[in-house]
Design brief:
- The chain has one domain (about 1-70, about 80-95).
- The radius of gyration is 15 Å and the shape is globular.
- The strands form two sheets. The protein has a four-stranded mixed sheet. Strands 4-5 form a two-stranded antiparallel sheet.
- By secondary structure, the chain is an alpha+beta fold.
- It has helices at about 10-20, 75-90, and strands at about 1-5, 30-40, 50-60, 65, 70-75, 90-95.
Length: about 110
């Protein structure tokens, strides 16, 4: 099964604004998504899990514990509330973070 992530330009702009708010310092944000499972894609005949971004939720500056060019840490006080909201609304919760001085690719 392949996995794709789709978002509107406004969500990408919001996410970039959160992740790169301070030049050279890692940023993070929560990403709320809907799941769409495609049993068989008509083009490649494979099943596909599509994550559709619905909302970018900033991690408030007051929740940041520390951040520099190699890491970011924050208090997860709002995490449980977001999990509950996602469960109630049929969403899934993701976490995005940046690599300001590193490779332009996903973390393992």
């Amino acid at each position: 099964m392949s996995v794709t992530l789709s978002m509107m330009e406004e969500h990408e702009a919001q996410l970039r604004g959160q992740l790169f708010a301070v030049p050279g310092v890692e940023g993070a944000a929560y990403v709320l998504m809907r799941i769409n499972v495609v049993g068989m894609d008509p083009w490649d005949r494979r099943s596909r899990l599509r994550l559709l971004v619905r909302e970018i939720v900033p991690i408030a500056a007051e929740h940041n514990v520390s951040a520099d060019g190699m890491h970011v840490r924050w208090h997860t006080a709002g995490f449980v509330a977001l999990l509950q909201r996602c469960a109630a609304q049929g969403l899934v919760l993701g976490i995005a973070h940046s690599h300001p001085g590193g490779p332009a690719q996903f973390s393992d």
